[in-house]
Amino acid sequence: IITRFKDIMTANMNALLDKAEDPEKMIDQYLRNLESDFAKVKAETASVMAEEKSAKRKLDECNEEIARMGEYAKKAVAAGNDNDARQFLTKKGELTEKQAVLAKNYELAQANAEKMKQMHDKLEADITAMKNKRDMLKAKVKVAETQKYNKGLKRYVQVILRFQSHGIFYIRHY
Fold it and tell me: Could you report the per-residue pLDDT of 90-122, keeping only the tens digit for each?
C-alpha cells in the first residue's frame, strides 16, 4: 500500500511539474545549450581541419623529397658516382619509411576531420530545427491566446445580448 501511495504521489508531483514547465523557456534553454556546444564543436573542427592540412603538407613534402632523392641518385649514376647514388637511395629508403607513417597520420587526420565536419553539420541542423520548433510553438501559443481572447469576447457579447433580450440592458442611440 505504501509503495502504491508513493507511486501515486510521484505521478501527481510529476504531473504538477509538467504543468509548471514552460515549453518555450525549455526550448530556449535547450537552444542555448546547443549553441554553446556548437561553438565548442566549431573551434574543435577548425583545429582538426588545421591538423589535417598540416599532415597533408608534411606528406606532400616527404613525397617531393623522395622524388628529389630518386632524381639525385639517377644523376649520380649518370655521372659515374655510385657512392653518392647509394647514399641518395639510402636516404630515399628512409624517407619511404617516413612516408608510410605520414600517410597513416594523414588518413587518421582526414577521418577525424570528416567526423568533426559531420558533427558540426548535424549540430547546425539540430539548432535550425529547434529554432523552427520554437517559432512554431510561439505561433501556436499566440493562436491559443487569440482564441481564448475571442472566446471571452464572444461570451461577453452573448451576455450583453441576453440582457438586452430580457430588457435588463439598454443601449441608447442619440
Answer: 999 999 999 999 999 999 999 999 999 988 888
3-state per-residue secondary structure call for the chain: CHHHHHHHHHHHHHHHHHHHCCHHHHHHHHHHHHHHHHHHHHHHHHHHHHHHHHHHHHHHHHHHHHHHHHHHHHHHHHCCCHHHHHHHHHHHHHHHHHHHHHHHHHHHHHHHHHHHHHHHHHHHHHHHHHHHHHHHHHHHHHHHHHHHHHHHHHHHHHHHHHHHHCCCCCCCCC
Rounded Cα distance between 124 and 64, Å, is 39
pLDDT tens digits along 124-173: 888 888 888 878 877 877 787 777 767 776 776 776 666 666 655 555 55
Is pTM beyond 0.85? Reply is no
CA distances from 118 to 22, 31, 44, 109, 124 (A): 32, 19, 12, 14, 10
